[in-house]
Automatic annotation (TrEMBL):
UniProtKB keywords: Signal
Protein's name according to its UniProt entry: Glycosyl hydrolase family 32 N-terminal domain-containing protein
Signal peptide stretch: 1-20
InterPro entries with a match to the protein in the record: Glyco_hydro_beta-prop_sf (IPR023296)
Domain of life: Bacteria
Organism of origin: Gimesia algae
């Protein structure tokens, strides 16, 4: 066989083997969002689009504020944790030890995430700096700089440890050695609580060593991962001279696996916080709202959006800013923009998250990003997948002139009988949960567990998410 024919023959064999070994995604009945290209097989005149959230007006009384904030949702309502100081206007340049000695963790509550109260907790003696008495933790050196709680959803967790938290810093090399000798090593310490208000150390020693952090001076968030069945922590670390993100896991919240650097930074990019958390409507997808730090522009900051699916590296589908500093000087001040931990549903069709100063932003449920097509039409074809369920639900929006048609195909791209574009009832409007129907109805149970592809033909429309429901 001539050399060129041999090459062509080998290419054809490899191509056929590749097609034969195509990975079939099993999405079960999970909600899948278009924040990455996990489902995306082919786009024709369509694109993944990042949507801009809406800043909501300020309310009176003033909202709680402070760096490294966390907002949890529990049977008490919304719980807001943020940093305060016993000496107003205190700064580390006035003395590193006294600065961190004076840090405290403050607490606010709300029934709607809009109007907040500062409850008098009576945990610590009243002091003029905090007349409302809303201090949940103080006298914990370094820990209050970035104390970050979460509600532990691990099955079987003790009620006395329903809430957990990490907090702490690492000493910089060859600095504050006398302080370290008196105070003990840095690192991330673990705390537990039955109600998110009364806290105690899980143990006296740090659970994540200071050598990992360089220097943990950020918000280091942990959570129980339903999809990975382990505790996960994303924390701040210097990586090749840039502020970056690392990750570690644990089965007991005491012993943690060796760190893995996430390599999320683009060239010459500082990521000041990780702010990585499971998305509450699709917890197998973690959302991250890191702060991008521009050291040479007056330490200006903005907020990015990234995602990851468990142990995989972050997806940087969208490299542009998700939230810009805004008009005016306040947003362009030194480190003026940090996203809080916590994305929560605050209305039938909206979810909220918070920034420094208690600013609240809203977007539609699942509405971080979408597959977007113009009025002249575009197409999305998913990768081959299997599902479990008997109806297809989509989260979508169209213009008055737009529409969406959905076709179910075999893995070769052939329309399946009864589920072709011609059979689909045109979809238009704006719904968080719309069931797709064809002439024969919405029942797709005959295809459950079988490899299929989904084809969406769209005009002036956004597709945010899809999910197969189990009605029976």
């Amino acid at each position: 066989m001539k050399p060129i024919l041999s090459v062509l023959f080998l290419f054809c064999v490899l191509t056929m083997n590749s097609l034969a070994e195509e990975t079939i995604l099993d999405i079960g009945s999970r909600r899948e969002l278009f924040v990455d290209r996990f489902l995306t097989g082919a786009l024709d005149n369509a694109e993944l689009k990042l949507h801009t959230p809406q800043l909501m007006p300020a309310v009176t009384p003033a909202r709680p504020h402070g760096h490294y904030a966390t907002v949890l949702k529990s049977d008490r309502g919304y719980q807001f944790y943020y940093r305060g100081d016993t000496k107003p206007g205190n700064h580390w340049k006035k003395g590193w030890e006294q600065y961190h000695e004076g840090e405290v963790t403050l607490y606010a509550e709300s029934s709607d995430a809009i109007h907040w109260t500062l409850p008098h907790l009576g945990i610590y003696p009243d002091r003029p700096t905090f007349p409302q008495g809303n201090v949940v933790l103080m006298n914990e050196f370094l820990v209050n700089h970035n104390f970050t709680p979460f509600i532990d959803t691990r099955p079987g967790v003790s009620e006395s440890e329903k809430y957990k938290a990490l907090g702490g810093l690492a000493y910089q090399p060859n600095q504050h050695l006398e302080v370290k000798q008196r105070r003990g090593p840095g690192g991330l310490k673990a705390f537990v609580s039955p109600d998110g208000i009364h806290w105690k150390p899980l143990q006296e020693e740090p659970v994540i060593p200071e050598e990992w952090g360089k220097y943990f001076d950020s918000q280091n968030y942990a959570f129980w991962s339903e999809s990975e069945q382990t505790y996960v922590c994303y924390f701040r670390r210097f990586i090749k001279g840039y502020r970056g993100i690392a990750r570690t896991t644990s089965q007991d919240f005491l012993h943690w696996t060796p760190l893995v650097e996430m390599h999320a930074n683009l060239p010459n990019e500082h990521l000041y916080t990780a702010c990585t958390q499971p998305y509450f409507r699709a917890p197998h997808i973690y959302f991250a709202l890191p702060t991008r730090f521009m050291a040479k522009r007056g330490a200006a900051t903005d907020i990015l959006f990234m995602s990851t699916r468990g142990s995989a590296q972050f997806d940087r589908e969208f490299t542009q800013s998700y939230i810009r500093p805004g008009i005016g000087q306040d947003g362009w001040a030194n480190r003026a923009n940090y996203a809080a931990i916590g994305i929560h549903q605050t209305g039938p069709a909206e979810m909220s998250f918070f920034l420094t100063g208690g600013r609240r932003y809203v977007t539609r449920l699942d509405g971080i990003a979408s597959v977007n097509a113009p009025l002249d039409g575009g197409t999305l074809v998913t990768k081959s997948l299997t599902f479990a369920g008997d109806e297809l639900e989509i989260n979508y929006s169209t213009s008055a002139a737009g529409q969406i048609l959905v076709e179910l195909q075999d893995t070769s791209g052939n329309p399946l009988p009864g589920f072709s574009l011609a059979d689909c009832e045109p979809i238009f409007g704006d719904h968080i949960a719309r069931i797709v129907k064809w002439k024969q109805g919405s029942d797709v149970s005959s295809l459950s567990g079988k490899p299929v592809r989904l084809r969406f033909v769209m005009q002036d429309a956004d597709l945010y998410a899809l999910k197969f429901n189990q009605r029976k």
